[in-house]
């Protein structure tokens, strides 16, 4: 963990806007999204590129992106060749796991300044086919790497949506509960966007077009003006026997984006005259039954909070990734969380879920939320495909 006299602190945090699938960021290669946020967090922290010890990013859908896309992002951001860069793959938890790895690297003395984060372009993820041994006759289907590598449980060979249905059944989360939660997420995000609450955390991305560069600086996925009537009309996507509850409206989207933070020890921040956004107090990762992977945040949050020597009531704000409304409701119900403390500016149902980026995205949002509201303690957590959960506790001075 990162407690003690000289804890690891976060001195800078930023993200791109989140683009819709085949939307405003769909033409931007994923490594360029990574470069944008790396440049921005360095600028905000007044850290020279040559001062960086290591770059660690979560990235899930790497097929066709070229050798080590994170290394491409690092070099593209002006960080020298001598600085290593690498990716970690923990599905939805990748972006937060990267921050844990960065904190561990600093805590062990291996690194002094680490850029950690996550990136994903689900729009650019390719379809593929295995033809190494040839195809003598007939057709062969293409596989979708988004579905195969990002959204299908490898143990049961079914979509993440089925695991969300399993959570809904086990925790008795009704369709009405899920639709109500989805509407709340949309309303909170709409209010936050109109109030400018996300502006400080977002770095604009310049996207080339035939009419010249277009600056993308607003999350594209939220549906302003959502109503319960419209949400409740949608048909279930995964179970069509009359028992299904998961729809396109109460699930997160497929999206593009990147996020990053700069990590260093508190003493290093003081030496540089930097005021930390927060210190990393603890983190935890757990495994659960893959068929109910959405329950992963429950033990992960409990363990991380226990390691921090906090109680759940001590926490001022939670950012819990809204992969599906069923799990968001189940996690809050099981932990007995105050809904006024959870995803107070909405979550992935409204904002979107670029899987490799989301872990760091929710941390970036949490840090800026705590700063804006004057809160002290925060928890970021995600469920993870394959049956896992990850959580991190941070504290502002």
TrEMBL record:
Q: Where is the active site?
A: 92, 353, 383
Q: Domain Thiolase N-terminal: where?
A: 8-267
Pfam families the UniProt entry points to: Thiolase_C, Thiolase_N
Q: Record keywords: Transferase included?
A: yes
Gene3D superfamilies for the chain: 3.40.47.10
Keyword field? Acyltransferase, Transferase
Pathway the protein contributes to: Lipid metabolism
What Gene Ontology molecular function terms does this protein carry? acetyl-CoA C-acetyltransferase activity
Which residues does the UniProt record annotate as the domain Thiolase C-terminal?
A: 274-395
Q: Which InterPro entries does the entry link to?
A: Thiolase, Thiolase-like, Thiolase_AS, Thiolase_C, Thiolase_CS, Thiolase_N
Name the UniProt record assigns to this protein: Acetyl-CoA acetyltransferase 2
Q: Which organism is it from?
A: Monodelphis domestica
Gene symbol? ACAT2
């Amino acid at each position: 963990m990162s407690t003690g006299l000289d804890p690891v602190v976060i001195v800078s945090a930023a993200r791109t806007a989140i683009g819709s699938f085949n939307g405003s960021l769909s033409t931007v290669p994923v490594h360029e999204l990574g470069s944008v946020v790396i440049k921005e967090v360095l600028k905000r922290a007044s850290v020279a590129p040559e001062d960086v010890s290591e770059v660690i990013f979560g990235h899930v859908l790497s097929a066709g992106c070229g050798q080590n896309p994170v290394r491409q992002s690092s070099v593209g951001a002006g960080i020298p060749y001598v600085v290593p860069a690498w990716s970690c793959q923990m599905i939805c938890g990748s972006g937060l796991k990267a921050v844990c790895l960065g904190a561990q690297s600093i805590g062990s003395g291996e690194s002094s300044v680490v850029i950690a984060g996550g990136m994903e372009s689900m729009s650019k993820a390719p379809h593929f086919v295995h033809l190494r041994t040839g195809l003598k006759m007939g057709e062969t289907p293409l596989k979708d790497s988004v579905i195969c590598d990002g959204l299908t449980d490898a143990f049961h060979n079914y979509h993440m949506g089925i695991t969300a249905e399993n959570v809904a059944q086990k925790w008795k989360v009704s369709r009405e509960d899920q639709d109500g939660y989805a509407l709340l997420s949309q309303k909170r995000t709409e209010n936050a966007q109109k109030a400018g609450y996300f502006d400080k955390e977002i770095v604009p991305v310049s996207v080339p077009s035939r009419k010249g560069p277009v600056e993308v600086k607003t999350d594209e996925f939220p549906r302003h003006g959502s109503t319960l009537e419209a949400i409740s009309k949608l048909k279930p996507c995964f179970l069509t026997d009359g028992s299904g509850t998961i729809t396109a409206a109460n699930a997160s989207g497929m999206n593009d984006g990147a996020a990053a933070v700069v990590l260093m020890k508190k003493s290093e921040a003081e030496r540089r005259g930097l005021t930390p956004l927060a210190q990393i107090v603890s983190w935890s990762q757990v495994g659960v039954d893959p068929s109910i992977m959405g329950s992963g945040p429950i033990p992960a949050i409990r363990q991380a909070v226990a390691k921090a020597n906090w109680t759940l009531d001590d926490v001022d704000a939670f950012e819990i990734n809204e992969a599906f409304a069923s799990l968001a409701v189940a996690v809050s119900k099981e932990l007995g969380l105050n809904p006024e403390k959870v995803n107070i500016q909405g979550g992935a149902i409204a904002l979107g879920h670029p899987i490799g980026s989301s872990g760091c995205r929710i941390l970036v949002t949490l840090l800026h939320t705590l700063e804006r509201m004057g809160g002290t303690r925060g928890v970021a957590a995600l469920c993870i495909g394959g049956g896992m959960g990850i959580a991190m506790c941070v504290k502002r001075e």
